[in-house]
Amino acid sequence: MRIARVETPAGVRTVRLADDGSWIPITDPYAAFADGRRPADEGDPVAGRLLAPCEPIVVVGIAQNGPDHAAPVQAWLKSPRTVTGSGASVALRRDAGTTVAEAEIAVVIGRDTTGLTAANAHEYVLGMTAVNDLSSPDRSVLDPRNFESKAGAGYTPLGPWIDTGLSLDADLALALIVDDEPVRQTSAARLPVSLRDCLSYVAGWNVLGPGDVIMMGAPFSAAPIHPGARVDVVVADVRLRTATF
Q1: If you ran DSSP here, which 8-state letter would residue 41 be given?
Q2: Quick check: helix, strand or coil at residue 29?
Q3: Could you count the other beta carbons within 10 Å of the beta carbon of residue 97?
Q4: How far apart are CA 135 and CA 213, in angstroms?
Q5: What percent of the chain has pLDDT over 90?
Q6: pLDDT tens digits, one per residue of 34-84
């Protein structure tokens, strides 16, 4: 199932993508997930602007999960207020040096992660989506905790939907496309630490809940961008598009 959130004249609705391309309202997918059932359809198709597919209280970034890191995996926190939806326009900061787009797999948590291990991690995951972890790496020299280097309004484009059919164990294709030109192409198999092990690490330190997001790192999938660039992040069949200015 592909789950999204749509802003309609009657308010925000959680929806699923139908075979004909329409958006069908559904009941709470997190309550359904916790009960081990599929969310029910709820009314006629709706139209409107796509929002980020979830509203995380916690956004976790995985560090030390790229080609140049020999240290054990670690994590950091990014403000959920930086999250925006696919199709949004993001103003790149002019006061923070180079801006880098990072194409990453985003795991969306389905329920309280108490008891999550690497072996059972799939039992806690609603699905996966695409995320562009926009960053200002020049700031990291003075900001080792990533507050400044990861800040910026709209600096976490997410979506456009959560794909509940993607597997933690699949070698998901991952691509970064800038101005319609592929600049990075890789896959989940090139992550030095697996999705399961990353989830287990994070859950061992911090309990997450429904709608929270873990960004899994950028293995060979980051590139500098300029204001005015159109940036796409592709995870399997999920394509996230962001305009910048």
Answers
A1: B
A2: helix
A3: 15
A4: 17
A5: 91
A6: 999 999 999 999 999 999 999 999 999 998 655 565 567 889 999 999 999
Q: C-alpha angle 56/183/217, rounded to 5°? A: 35
Helices and strands counted in the chain (H then E): 2, 17
> What pLDDT, in 10s, does the model give residues 205-226?
999 999 999 999 998 999 999 9
Low-confidence ranges of the chain (pLDDT < 70): 64-71
Residue in the structure block whose two tokens are 């709608």: 211
Other residues' Cβ atoms within 10 Å of the Cβ of residue 202: 24
d(CA 167, CA 204): 21
Query: What are the backbone angles phi and psi of residue 93, rounded to the nearest 5°?
Result: -65, 135
Work out the burial of residue 177: count CB atoms within 10 Å of its CB; fewer than 13 is exposed, 13-18 middle, 19 or more buried.
Answer: buried
Task: Name the token pair of 161.
Answer: 């939907």
Number of residues written out for the chain: 245
Query: Of 88, 26, 125, 93, which is closest to residue 243 (Cα–Cα)?
Result: 88
Q: Are 170 and 235 in contact (CB under 8 A)?
A: no
pTM: 0.96
Give the CA angle between residues 1, 41, 106 to the nearest 5°: 30
Radius of gyration of the chain (CA): 17
Distance CA 244, CA 67 (A): 27
- 196: helix, strand or coil: helix
């796509």: which residue's tokens? Answer: 50
Which residue ranges form the domains of the chain, and what is each CATH number?
1-51 (2.30.30.370), 52-244 (3.90.850.10)
Coil vs helix vs strand at 228: coil
